[in-house]
Amino acid sequence: MALPQGERLVSMSNLERLKTAYKTWSDTKGAKPQVWLDLMAEEFALRSMGADKPGLTFARERVSREQAVDYMTQLLSDWSMVYWQPETYVCEGDHIAVFGRSAWINNATNKSAELRVAHLWRFRNDEAVSLDEVFDSARAVAAATP
Questions:
Q1: Beta-carbon contacts of residue 114 (< 8 Å; ≥ 6 apart)
Q2: pLDDT at residue 3 greater than cutoff 60
Q3: Maximum pairwise Cα distance, the chain
Q4: Considering only CA atoms, which of 83, 85, 140, 137 is closest in space to residue 112?
């Protein structure tokens, strides 16, 4: 489709793109991880607390977009999402912090965990280059423990 002369297609801001991705992630209960891949640079770092805790092996550090896919695959294999609700977005320069709540059911124990979550995204040239994730790992471990 051609645009009228003098107009150009303007891409969504990183904040708008993140808001759309979180909405899709929550609405589909994680069934469309492509929303995250569309944001990520090939060289993407994902760091999540709790990697050394039992039942949270999905949380180990990832150092590429391909490994981030493995994170999502393992997370969604071990856990079923109940909801992921962003509450606050804070933007400064190339960083966007997202604070929210999330609830998951561990597939092995059938126990649930409601968690406070904080994500810190960093962008470069409109691509996400890193994500640092902090969540209530004690509650997650309790839900993963038989």
A1: 101, 102, 103, 139
A2: no
A3: 64
A4: 140
Where do we find the tokens 């060289």?
43
Residue whose C-alpha is closest to residue 125's, from 15, 36, 14: 14
Residue 26 CA to residue 143 CA, distance in Å, equals 20
Alpha-helical segments (H) within 9-133: 14-27, 34-37, 65-78
Is 39 in a helix, a strand, or coil?
coil
Token look-up 């993140």 returns: 18
Tokens (6 digits) for 92:
């400064």
AA identity, residue 56: L
Two tokens, residue 10: 């303007």
| Residues 35, 141, 31: CA angle, nearest 5 degrees | 20
Residue 13 phi/psi, 5-degree rounding, is -65, 160
The residue behind tokens 């509650």 is 139
Confidence of residue 10 (pLDDT cuts 50, 70, 90): very low
How far lies 66's CA from each of 22, 71, 131, in Å? 20, 9, 14
pTM, full prediction: 0.86
DSSP 4: P
